[in-house]
Amino acid sequence: MKELWAKIKEALVSTLPITAIVYLLALTPWFDFSQTELVTFTVGAGLLVVGIGLFSLGADLAMTPMGSHVGAGLSRQKKLGLLLSVCFVLGMLITIAEPDLQVLAKQVSAVMNGTLLIYAVGIGVGAFLLVAILRIVFRKQLSLIMMLFYMLLFALALMLVVNDNAALMPLAFDSGGVTTGPITVPFIMALGVGISSVLGDRHSQDNSFGLVALCSIGPVLAVLVLGIFSGNDLTYAVPDYVVRNDILNSFLTTAGHTAKEIAIALGLIVAFFLICQFIFLKLPRKRLLKIAVGVVFTYIGLVMFLTGVNVGFMPIGYKLGYELAAVNRWLIVGIGLLMGVLVVLAEPAIHVLNAQVEEVTGGYVSKKSMMMGLCIGVGAAITLSVIRIIFDFSIVYYVIPGYFISLALSLFVPPVYTAIAFDSGGVASGPMTSGFILPFATGVCMCLQGEAAVLRDAFGVVALVAMAPLITIQLLGFKAIVSERIAEKRAMKRILDADDQQIINFM
Fold first, then answer.
1. I need a surface site. Which of 86, 146, 190, 278 has the fewest CB within 10 A?
2. What is the C-alpha to C-alpha distance for residues 483 and 188, in angstroms, rounded to an integer?
3. Looking at residue 243, what DSSP letter applies?
4. Neighbours of 205 (CB within 10 A)
5. Contact (CB, 8 A) for 494 and 506
6. Is residue 115 over pLDDT 80?
7. Rounded distance, CA 139 to CA 142, Å?
8. 301/232 Cα distance (integer angstroms)
9. What integer pLDDT is reported at residue 250 of this predicted model?
């Protein structure tokens, strides 16, 4: 119970800033929130907090151990074909269960079949998980592999533009951002650590970084391919973001549908794990019981989380964006910046990442500088997204220069910085981004540009949020290198300028 309470407190801190913004704006004369809307939002926030808490604990008890055990067990078999086959299936199944992807699929169901999108993204993650595993096995440099596949990605994006189907491009990049969510990241990183530890790699922890980065490329490529082979007559219809008067029935109905979907998704993962357990894992019963408890927590948490987001947060986020844009289009720029900063400050995984980077860099990149950099980066990403909606221009003008800068920086910083930077995009684009910020952007776009422009202009905000840490962390890594070299030069100068006794004392 102590661990569960700690997770719930983290989730409360995560959702409180956005919740406070909604309540404060509801007091202004710009908005006319009904009592039903505020009650629905409050209940949704409560479900979100408890759901994230239960889910986080379940991921610690079940998802991470399952990934680690499967990775280590497969590596002990010394059969590369078996390792790759199982990892592909697991990558696909774990992605299908990702809550952030479920939220995105619901919002684009009018453009593309939600099931088709989920399975295409799952295949993309599975395929690139194979690439990530092969990188560990053959010890290849991450930055070169990233450059190769991003060149392919940009080529496919260009084909989409040539086919006059560029409206799907923001959705493709968003798909990469949402798949690196709270269920995928711990499982995949644990899988990488399990594999590299058995292979005898001294840098198993470093190899765990970079798996998520590669897996986030697969969904983008998969959706771009779908866009190339689909027609160019796409029509987008904004989902029904209306808050129903029958609050209880709205929550119960949504919870019922969600429970069925999550049961299927998690059931497939558990079934596959049990097959691995029967064939080669042979874990003791006590450990299996602990994993079973974690799966139950994960299931209940996911149902509560998705119900709270779908019924409570998404409609309010949409209305907030629409009515703010109606008041003053430049006001939403400032609100977007504030939301970006608060999302970063509130995300628990960000604090873990910051501590990790400080340890890796030996203190040259402090937690404080990391937090400041990420706040600026994510705040700027949401601000730029709003500006893109106001002026109605393509996301290409952001993502191509952004990724080129990121890849160029990877040539000058140590590989660990690149791996952490590309992995951290999934940390930044958490539940609040897909569940609140994206509907907010949709509302802004509906007010300023109309429904026809939503797919082209509103989508892409998740991708920009995920891209921000790529540049920020590598710049901080570059700063750390420069600082270290300056310190070395100063020390050497002191030695050269000193006499023998001073050198002895210095040493």
1. 278
2. 33
3. P
4. 16
5. yes
6. no
7. 9
8. 39
9. 92
Q: Which two tokens stand for residue 75?
A: 């590596």
DSSP string, 81-136: HHHHHHHHHHHHHHHHT-HHHHHHHHHTTTTS-HHHHHHHHHHHHHHHHHHHHHHH
* Token couple for 301: 């948490």
Determine the Cα–Cα distance for residues 334 and 71; give it in Å rounded to an integer: 45
Residue 43: pLDDT over 90: yes
CA angle centred on 430, ends 115 and 465, rounded to 5°: 100
The token duo for 217 is 């490329």
Q: CB-based contacts of 324: which residues, under 8 Å, 6+ apart?
A: 25, 30, 331, 332, 335, 443, 444
- Pair of tokens at residue 319: 């209305």
Instruction: With a cut of 70, say whether residue 165 has pLDDT above it.
Output: yes
CB 427 within 8 A of CB 353: yes
Mean pLDDT on 435-459: 89
Written as six digits, the tokens of 360 are 């890796």
Quick one: CA dihedral 452, 159, 462, 176, positive or negative? positive
Say if CB 87 and CB 120 are below 8 A apart.
no
Q: Is the Cβ–Cβ distance between 91 and 129 less than 8 Å?
A: yes
Task: Inform me whether the pLDDT recorded for 504 exceeds 60.
Answer: no
For every residue of 279-320, DSSP letters joined together read III---HHHHHHHHHHHHHHHHHHHHHHHHIIIIIHHHHHHH
Q: How many CA atoms lie within 13 A of 249 on its CB side?
A: 4
Q: Which residues of 61-99 are buried (b: 16+ CB within 10 A; e: fewer)?
A: bbbbbbbbbbbbbbbeeeeeeebbebbbbbbbbbbbbbb
> Which has the closest alpha carbon to 468: 396, 412, 385?
385
Taking the C-alpha atoms of residue 386 and residue 214, their distance in angstroms, rounded to an integer, is 28
Q: How many CB atoms lie within 10 A of CB 33?
A: 18
In the block, tokens 């689909």 appear at 230
C-alpha 398/C-alpha 4 separation (Å) is: 40
Mean pLDDT of 408-421: 82
User: Alpha carbon 132 to chain centroid distance?
Assistant: 18
